[in-house]
Predict the 3D structure of the following.
Amino acid sequence: MNYHMDKILEAASMELVREKVTTALKEEGFGVLTEIDIQAVMKKKLDKEYKPMLILGACNPVFADKVLSIDPNMTAMLPCNVSIRELSEGKFEVSAIDPEVAMVPLGNEAIKPLAKEVKEKLHRAVNALS
């Protein structure tokens, strides 16, 4: 069972890919709440070199509200992560968590249909990238 949805893009820079991803997410009702620069963090904390890599914390407030009204402890599962990794010069992988798979261990039947809808929205956002 795959826990993420991926797409490979060609672009001149990480910044251009980030803008495309942010726009695609916005069209599906998501905002980016957090952004973690893994390359910078690993360099600072471990003095290790990494290729450019970002983690965007994407949240659709309508679905977050529905999920939190069912189970307030779901805050630990929010937001949905979308990563951007440079594979090689000009080639990037965008990967989004599959919330439907992520919710399986919780066993909460009321959340399953919401997770499916969020998955569909993230899938459309990833597939819209070019």
Summary: The first strand starts at residue 4 and ends at 10. The chain has one domain: 4-127.
